[in-house]
Structure formats: C-alpha cells, structure tokens
Input
Amino acid sequence: MNYDQCQNCFKLVNNNQLIQFFVDLIEYKDKYTQGHSHHVKVIVETIYEYLPDQIKLKLDREKLINAALLHDIGKIKIPDSILNKESGLSDEEWKIMQEHPKFSKEIIKNTVFREIGDWILYHHERIDGKGYFGLADNEIPLESKIIAIADTFSALRTYRIYRPAKTIKETIHIMEKAGGEQLDKNILNYFLSIDENILEKLECNCKICQERREALEKLPNVA
Ligand SMILES: [Fe+2]
Ligand SMILES: [Fe+2]
Output
C-alpha cells in the first residue's frame, strides 16, 4: 500500500467534508441564501475556465473554488433577526452585516483553509476603494475580484423575498455599468464575453429560485 497516496486521499476527503459542513451550516442559518455558496462556486469555475492562460497561471483553481464556497461563512455569526429580515436593514444592522467577511476569515483561520483568509476577507471590496475595507484596485487580491464578480452575478440572478431575479439581459447591463467602479473591468470583460445562453444557464438552484422559476413556467404565455 502506498501510504503517502492514502494519506493524501484521506486529507482530500476530509477537506471536502469540512467544506460541506461549513456550507451546510451557513445555508441552514440563512434561509434566503440557500444555494448561494454553491451558485458562486459554479460561477467562479466558469469565470476561471474563460480566463486567458496568463491570468490562470496566477491562480490556484482548487483554492479559488474553496474560497468561493466559504466566502460568506462568517454570516453564521450574524444574528438571525438581521440575516433573515424581510425588510430593509437599518444603518446599525447594516454595520453588523458588513462584519461577515471579517468573521469568515476568523472562522477558517485555524483550519486547512487559512491561506484563503484574505481572499474572502476582501470579497466586498470595490475597485474605486468604496468597499468594506476601502482597498483600491491593485490592493485587492485577484481572487477577491473574481469572487466579487461571481457574488454580484449571483445576487442579481437570485430571487429575493422582496424582488424577482433580474433577467440575464438586465444582469449583463448592470454588471457592465459596474465595471471599473465596483468590479474589475478586465476580469469582467472575460466573463461577459461568454455566450449569453451559457451565462443564462448559470442559475441559482436554491429552493426559492427553483419554486419561482417553476411558477413562472406555469404562467400562460401572453406573447
Ligand atoms: Fe458576502
Ligand atoms: Fe455572497
């Protein structure tokens, strides 16, 4: 028996189980973002696939995907009354909500995922420096920029209790406008150059989105 190989397999299985545990935990607590971590992961995988080799060389695909899955894990420390609030948040509640990237980094700091701590810490940074920590363009890790694009796409394409999901055309339009201010324009251009039909299929499979899509499909076609 090749013990090293065995140990590696064992380690890999445990890492995947640990990730799944974290994801289950956040989705159990945050009922309106069920499926969000997995949705962001699938979008990040797609962005990576369409990046040119010179950018791919700067990235570790597996670690990037782990960061996509764990980016919002810090929300488990946000009170349910704020996380699952159906109306708008007050300034005070919003401040608490904005703590979640910091909590995400703290939660994984003693695990095998500690290396991706800064990528998830900075997933709400903006290119213009107006994000949670005020980091500007080249201060933001490339991985955080990719997660921010996937996170924005996921948010726009997801049904919320207070609003429907944006159509793919609306989503593309909103994201194009965010390029250079909120989102990294270079990475965004690669993402938005993907065929619209492929982008449209990057749907959220959370329970709420599935139910809303099924309900819409049942409506009579009035066109
Ligand atoms: Fe977040
Ligand atoms: Fe998110």
User: Anything to note?
Assistant: The chain has one domain: 3-218. DSSP finds 13 helices and no strands in the chain. Confidence is low (pLDDT under 50) at residues 1-13. The pocket of fe (ii) ion (ligand 2) is lined by residues 36, 40, 71-72, 151 (CB under 6 Å).
